Amino acid sequence: MRFARFAAAAALAALATSASAQSFPGAPGGILVVEGKCSKLVVAKLDASKSCKGELASVTMPNGLVTFIFTADGKMLGFEGDGRAIAPASKGSVRFPVHLVSSAVGAKITDQVEAAGYCTFGNPFAGQPTAVECSAKNKTANFTGSFRTSGKPPHAK
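The structure assignment produced for this chain is given below.
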């Protein structure tokens, strides 16, 4: 199931989001894409920030799992967590816990590791730029993705 979700997102090379901060990142089975600027993408000791694309995808599975997908140079980094556990954060943002980080090249998952962290995000439908920040770590590596939306609403893919 993880491969199917990740492969679909990879094939679309897109990003996702939904109707409000509480319902963002999207309806189950949906892929939303938001445009903007990726300011940071770090995988362990590899800093891919300069090549990080100006799109961010959000994939929401029927079981409530949510993955934010950052892309750089044909590779993807996904932060997966329980979208049913979305809770208020600070300054009008919300967050959900991350439990898995996946990497892929094209439609092929190259690695999946358990990791602990959070994705925090604002309402991309508010008509103004907002941040999506994901970070997670495990015993051997840290993972970080930072994205600022353009202020345009997300679109479905």
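Interim note for the steering committee: The mean pLDDT is 84. The first helix runs from residue 2 to 12.
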